[in-house]
């Protein structure tokens, strides 16, 4: 009884401390995608992407009902037995099911490559024995999130006045559908270790009931909570965005901390540059004052460097940085 009481006090104290930090340090920008002139909106997205590498969006055009229906769908899919989950195999490198592991013991996730393709979604749903209604929800959600990710990328490109801002027309998107197995014993521990995203841009549909996502300020190394409310989405910039922009955009380091003893469900949509397409910055990013920083490289090559060297939070840039 004494041990349980001490544990309860410890958890309560931790949560109070974390909630206070959240109130004091709510610094991650929130951008309203409606009612703002295009030029100003593009500039807001650019500034947040350069300073933080992440921001939150509201009035993004994805309905609250679709967000809720998708969350119910993926929560149900995560109830499948292990022998069904492992049918979700890789389509591209590391795109399939990820079970709980020694590195991330509280985390498991499904992966779905090419979310704008009804055929890809049907194949995924066949393997996981999803219902007809769940398939329909996933098709609508995939189309909406792929469209939003591309709209945000075009806004970012327009902010730099690129000759061709429609850079992402043929880029695919991928889902990562995650479940965090939080419990009283894991409060205060990592739910997902610090990492950067390997792709260009990520939209995170978080869990409104269970927080824990934190972004690192690259200038100080301090972590700040990303607190969301219903119908708010979080946007992260990844490794390929940093390479494409010649270092102008920040590939935000982020992590998930266990702050409550509750299951956490999130859906991330990753906008990817095609795996075999070699990426180098447009001419607008390179001049005498801004020399080229990185070797040309494809998304697939950078992922192989990350995986083969067990590098997760940007260390792989040492292999591509020009001296």
Automatic annotation (TrEMBL):
It comes from the Eukaryota. GO terms for molecular function: metal ion binding; oxidoreductase activity. Pfam families: 2OG-FeII_Oxy, DIOX_N. Residues 170-274 form the Fe2OG dioxygenase domain. The keyword Oxidoreductase applies. PROSITE patterns: FE2OG_OXY. The keyword Acyltransferase does not apply. Gene3D superfamilies: B-lactam Antibiotic, Isopenicillin N Synthase, Chain. Keywords: Iron, Metal-binding, Oxidoreductase. 2-oxoglutarate-dependent dioxygenase essential for auxin catabolism and maintenance of auxin homeostasis in reproductive organs. Catalyzes the irreversible oxidation of indole-3-acetic acid (IAA) to the biologically inactive 2-oxoindole-3-acetic acid (OxIAA). Belongs to the iron/ascorbate-dependent oxidoreductase family. This is 2-oxoglutarate-dependent dioxygenase DAO. The lineage of its organism: Eukaryota, Viridiplantae, Streptophyta, Embryophyta, Tracheophyta.
């Amino acid at each position: 009884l004494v041990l349980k009481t001490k544990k309860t006090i410890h958890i309560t104290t931790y949560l109070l401390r974390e909630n206070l930090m959240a109130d004091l340090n709510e610094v991650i920008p929130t951008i309203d995608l409606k009612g703002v002139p295009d030029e100003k909106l593009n500039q807001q997205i650019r500034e947040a992407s350069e300073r933080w590498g992440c921001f939150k969006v509201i009035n993004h055009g994805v309905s609250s009902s679709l967000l809720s229906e998708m969350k119910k769908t993926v929560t149900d899919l995560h109830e499948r037995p292990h022998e069904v989950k492992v049918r979700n195999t890789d389509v591209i490198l590391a795109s399939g099911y990820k079970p709980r592991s020694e590195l991330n013991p509280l985390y498991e996730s499904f992966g779905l490559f090419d979310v704008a393709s009804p055929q890809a979604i049907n194949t995924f749903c066949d393997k996981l024995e999803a219902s007809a209604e769940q398939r329909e929800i996933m098709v609508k959600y995939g189309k909406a999130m792929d469209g939003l990710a591309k709209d945000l990328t075009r806004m970012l490109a327009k902010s730099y006045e690129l000759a061709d801002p429609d850079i992402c027309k043929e880029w695919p998107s991928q889902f990562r559908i995650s479940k965090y197995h939080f419990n009283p014993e894991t409060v205060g521990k990592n739910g997902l270790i610090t990492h950067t995203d390997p792709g260009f841009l990520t939209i995170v549909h978080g869990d409104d009931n269970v927080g824990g996502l934190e972004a690192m300020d690259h200038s100080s190394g301090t972590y700040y909570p990303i607190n969301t409310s219903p119908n708010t989405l979080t946007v992260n910039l990844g490794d390929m965005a940093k390479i494409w922009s010649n270092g102008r955009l920040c590939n935000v380091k982020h992590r998930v901390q266990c702050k409550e003893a509750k299951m956490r469900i999130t859906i991330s949509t990753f906008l990817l540059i095609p795996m075999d397409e070699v990426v180098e910055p447009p001419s607008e990013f390179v001049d005498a004052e801004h020399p080229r920083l990185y070797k040309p490289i494809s998304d697939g090559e950078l992922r192989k460097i990350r995986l083969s060297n067990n590098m997760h939070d940007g260390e792989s840039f040492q292999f591509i940085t020009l001296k």
